[in-house]
Amino acid sequence: MASVRVLFAISTVASCLAIAACGSFSGSDPEPADGGTPGEGGQPQAEAGGEETGKPTDDAGATDAGGNGANVLTNGDFELGCGIWQQNGATLTADTTARSGGTSCLVCGNAGLTVWSIYQTVDAVPGATYTGEAWVRAPSTDASATATAMSVSIAVESATNLPQLAETPGPASLEATWKKGATAIARTDKQATTITLGILSRAAGGCFLVDDAVLRRPP
User: Cα–Cα–Cα angle for 212, 191, 70, nearest 5°?
Assistant: First the structure.
């Protein structure tokens, strides 16, 4: 299963995020779980990135207070450093500048790449709506240039349909304060097999810190 997930993540996240053969949730909704017309009612609205407002209160490993279900990611709070997470065109390094807890992950793009990311793939529940988000900020040292053109994406692999991608633009620039990268929302079809949350930059070079990533579906 691990090798299948990595292969999917490479082919779907890397290719989808490079604008390859993928559908778009905003333009081609997956087949609804209730058997209705695809696209009926449209996808739920995603939320662009924003500033930190007060002390962090959410737990990337706990059930959301609004009833949105448990976080299905492993090490979403990065207290295990960058463990479990994968990269596409980047290097991952544990960092002690954290939004909550004691650790975050420093993500640095490889030279010459204009799309690079950190991501995690998990098994998907067919016919469910997932909400994904993460918090990002500039690196804690001047030695690392700051990434730009941030976004958060959810990619869904289906047994019968092309991979589908939902991507929400986040902050165009980062500072030394935590910002919500963005909130991406995706609905899986009846044949969905895996789902991937990605936090990415669409600009060459630089680094960003990421913490408190969540991928939830209603209980």
Answer: 25
Query: What's the pLDDT tens digit per position in 57-87?
Result: 444 544 343 346 899 999 999 999 999 999 9
Could you read off the pLDDT of 115-164 as tens digits, one per residue?
A: 999 999 999 999 999 999 999 999 987 767 899 899 999 999 988 777 88
Residue 52 to residues 87, 103, 134, 178, 215: CA-CA distances in angstroms? Answer: 25, 18, 12, 6, 19
Tell me the domain boundaries of the chain: 2-25+60-216
Q: What is the pTM of this model?
A: 0.76
* Residues facing residue 95 across a β-bridge: 104
Q: Is 2-25+60-216 a domain of CATH 2.60.120.260?
A: yes
Beta strands, E only, 1-158 = 23-24, 47-51, 86-88, 90-95, 104-109, 116-123, 129-137, 150-158
Do you know the residue count of the chain? 219
